[in-house]
Specification:
alpha+beta; outer membrane lipoprotein receptor (LolB), chain A
Protein backbone atom coordinates (compact mmCIF):
# COMPACT_ATOMS: atom_id res chain seq x y z
CA UNK A 1 0.00 0.00 0.00
CA UNK A 2 2.80 2.52 0.66
CA UNK A 3 3.73 2.38 -3.06
CA UNK A 4 0.21 3.44 -4.11
CA UNK A 5 0.20 6.32 -1.64
CA UNK A 6 3.70 7.36 -2.71
CA UNK A 7 2.72 7.48 -6.37
CA UNK A 8 -0.47 9.37 -5.63
CA UNK A 9 1.15 12.04 -3.50
CA UNK A 10 4.08 12.45 -5.88
CA UNK A 11 1.64 13.34 -8.63
CA UNK A 12 -0.70 15.50 -6.58
CA UNK A 13 1.76 17.56 -4.60
CA UNK A 14 4.15 20.14 -6.13
CA UNK A 15 7.76 19.00 -6.00
CA UNK A 16 9.16 22.36 -4.91
CA UNK A 17 10.53 22.79 -1.39
CA UNK A 18 9.28 25.77 0.59
CA UNK A 19 9.97 27.24 3.97
CA UNK A 20 6.92 27.69 6.18
CA UNK A 21 7.11 31.45 5.69
CA UNK A 22 6.91 31.19 1.91
CA UNK A 23 3.68 31.33 -0.04
CA UNK A 24 2.60 27.83 -1.11
CA UNK A 25 2.04 27.30 -4.86
CA UNK A 26 -1.42 25.87 -5.51
CA UNK A 27 -1.69 26.41 -9.24
CA UNK A 28 -0.01 28.10 -12.16
CA UNK A 29 0.78 31.62 -10.97
CA UNK A 30 -1.31 31.22 -7.78
CA UNK A 31 0.00 30.84 -4.26
CA UNK A 32 -1.35 31.05 -0.74
CA UNK A 33 0.40 32.51 2.28
CA UNK A 34 -0.68 30.11 5.03
CA UNK A 35 -2.93 31.95 7.49
CA UNK A 36 -2.15 31.36 11.17
CA UNK A 37 -4.45 29.11 13.24
CA UNK A 38 -5.95 32.11 15.04
CA UNK A 39 -7.55 33.10 11.71
CA UNK A 40 -10.21 30.48 12.42
CA UNK A 41 -13.14 31.93 14.33
CA UNK A 42 -13.52 29.02 16.74
CA UNK A 43 -11.69 25.98 18.05
CA UNK A 44 -12.39 22.94 15.91
CA UNK A 45 -11.91 19.21 16.25
CA UNK A 46 -12.86 17.07 13.27
CA UNK A 47 -12.54 13.42 12.26
CA UNK A 48 -12.43 13.07 8.48
CA UNK A 49 -12.53 10.20 6.06
CA UNK A 50 -10.56 11.30 3.02
CA UNK A 51 -11.02 9.71 -0.39
CA UNK A 52 -8.62 10.76 -3.14
CA UNK A 53 -9.76 10.03 -6.72
CA UNK A 54 -7.24 10.11 -9.52
CA UNK A 55 -7.03 8.34 -12.89
CA UNK A 56 -10.11 6.23 -12.14
CA UNK A 57 -8.76 4.92 -8.82
CA UNK A 58 -9.72 5.80 -5.26
CA UNK A 59 -7.50 5.89 -2.20
CA UNK A 60 -8.86 6.18 1.35
CA UNK A 61 -7.19 7.84 4.34
CA UNK A 62 -8.37 8.81 7.81
CA UNK A 63 -7.64 12.20 9.29
CA UNK A 64 -7.94 13.96 12.62
CA UNK A 65 -7.84 17.75 12.46
CA UNK A 66 -7.71 19.99 15.52
CA UNK A 67 -7.47 23.76 15.31
CA UNK A 68 -6.99 26.11 18.26
CA UNK A 69 -5.71 29.71 18.27
CA UNK A 70 -2.25 28.34 19.10
CA UNK A 71 -1.91 25.57 16.51
CA UNK A 72 -3.36 23.46 13.75
CA UNK A 73 -2.73 19.74 14.24
CA UNK A 74 -3.39 17.16 11.52
CA UNK A 75 -2.85 13.40 11.85
CA UNK A 76 -3.22 11.23 8.73
CA UNK A 77 -3.55 7.44 8.87
CA UNK A 78 -3.32 4.99 5.99
CA UNK A 79 -6.04 2.34 5.41
CA UNK A 80 -4.21 -0.05 7.75
CA UNK A 81 -4.38 2.49 10.59
CA UNK A 82 -0.68 3.35 10.42
CA UNK A 83 0.29 6.95 11.07
CA UNK A 84 1.52 8.45 7.80
CA UNK A 85 1.98 12.05 8.77
CA UNK A 86 1.47 14.42 11.68
CA UNK A 87 1.59 18.16 10.98
CA UNK A 88 1.80 20.95 13.58
CA UNK A 89 1.32 24.55 12.32
CA UNK A 90 1.60 27.42 14.81
CA UNK A 91 1.43 30.23 12.27
CA UNK A 92 5.22 30.51 12.02
CA UNK A 93 6.69 27.02 11.80
CA UNK A 94 5.54 23.74 10.29
CA UNK A 95 6.67 20.72 12.25
CA UNK A 96 6.04 17.25 10.94
CA UNK A 97 6.46 13.63 11.94
CA UNK A 98 6.53 11.34 8.90
CA UNK A 99 6.38 7.61 8.32
CA UNK A 100 9.66 6.31 6.91
CA UNK A 101 7.87 5.09 3.78
CA UNK A 102 6.23 8.44 3.01
CA UNK A 103 8.07 10.06 0.09
CA UNK A 104 9.74 13.45 0.57
CA UNK A 105 7.58 14.84 -2.25
CA UNK A 106 4.62 14.85 0.14
CA UNK A 107 4.75 18.46 1.32
CA UNK A 108 3.14 19.49 4.57
CA UNK A 109 2.76 23.08 3.37
CA UNK A 110 0.71 21.94 0.35
CA UNK A 111 -1.53 19.80 2.54
CA UNK A 112 -2.03 22.79 4.86
CA UNK A 113 -2.88 25.01 1.87
CA UNK A 114 -5.61 22.57 0.80
CA UNK A 115 -6.98 22.48 4.34
CA UNK A 116 -7.11 26.27 4.29
CA UNK A 117 -8.87 26.34 0.91
CA UNK A 118 -11.57 24.05 2.26
CA UNK A 119 -11.98 25.24 5.85
CA UNK A 120 -10.59 28.77 6.40
CA UNK A 121 -12.90 31.79 6.40
CA UNK A 122 -13.15 33.38 2.94
CA UNK A 123 -11.90 36.88 3.96
CA UNK A 124 -8.76 35.30 5.44
CA UNK A 125 -8.08 33.35 2.25
CA UNK A 126 -8.65 36.34 -0.03
CA UNK A 127 -6.22 38.40 2.07
CA UNK A 128 -3.53 35.69 1.80
CA UNK A 129 -4.02 34.69 -1.84
CA UNK A 130 -1.44 35.77 -4.44
CA UNK A 131 -2.71 35.62 -8.02
CA UNK A 132 -6.08 34.20 -8.91
CA UNK A 133 -9.53 35.01 -7.59
CA UNK A 134 -11.44 33.21 -4.87
CA UNK A 135 -15.21 33.48 -4.75
CA UNK A 136 -17.86 31.81 -2.65
CA UNK A 137 -21.50 31.41 -3.57
CA UNK A 138 -23.80 29.50 -1.24
CA UNK A 139 -22.16 26.06 -0.96
CA UNK A 140 -19.47 26.50 -3.62
CA UNK A 141 -15.97 28.00 -3.43
CA UNK A 142 -14.11 28.66 -6.69
CA UNK A 143 -10.44 29.52 -7.12
CA UNK A 144 -9.89 30.76 -10.65
CA UNK A 145 -7.50 32.55 -12.95
CA UNK A 146 -8.56 35.00 -15.63
CA UNK A 147 -8.96 32.06 -18.04
CA UNK A 148 -10.40 29.15 -16.07
CA UNK A 149 -11.44 27.55 -12.80
CA UNK A 150 -8.48 25.97 -11.04
CA UNK A 151 -10.04 24.50 -7.88
CA UNK A 152 -13.66 24.11 -6.85
CA UNK A 153 -14.82 23.20 -3.37
CA UNK A 154 -18.44 22.10 -2.99
CA UNK A 155 -20.04 21.78 0.44
CA UNK A 156 -22.97 19.51 1.23
CA UNK A 157 -23.70 21.66 4.29
CA UNK A 158 -20.82 23.88 5.46
CA UNK A 159 -17.02 23.68 5.88
CA UNK A 160 -17.30 21.57 9.05
CA UNK A 161 -20.05 19.03 8.41
CA UNK A 162 -21.31 16.63 5.80
CA UNK A 163 -19.36 15.75 2.69
CA UNK A 164 -17.04 18.21 0.96
CA UNK A 165 -15.65 17.76 -2.55
CA UNK A 166 -12.46 19.50 -3.71
CA UNK A 167 -11.70 19.23 -7.44
CA UNK A 168 -8.31 20.41 -8.70
CA UNK A 169 -9.06 20.90 -12.40
CA UNK A 170 -5.48 21.52 -13.54
CA UNK A 171 -4.06 18.38 -11.89
CA UNK A 172 -7.26 16.40 -12.50
CA UNK A 173 -7.86 14.94 -9.05
CA UNK A 174 -10.65 15.07 -6.51
CA UNK A 175 -10.70 14.84 -2.74
CA UNK A 176 -13.89 13.92 -0.89
CA UNK A 177 -13.95 14.68 2.82
CA UNK A 178 -16.58 12.95 4.91
CA UNK A 179 -16.68 14.78 8.20
CA UNK A 180 -17.86 12.94 11.30
CA UNK A 181 -19.63 15.09 13.86
Amino acid sequence: MPNIIMILFMLLVPIIAHNSGDAVPIGQGISLQLPPPEAFVQEIESAQRIVLSWQGKKYALEGQLKISPQQLLLVLLDPLGRRMLTIHWDGKTIQEERADWLPPEVRSNTILAQIMLVHAPLPTLVQNLRGGTLTENNKLRILSTADHELITVQYQKDPWSGTIHLHHHALNYEIALEIAN
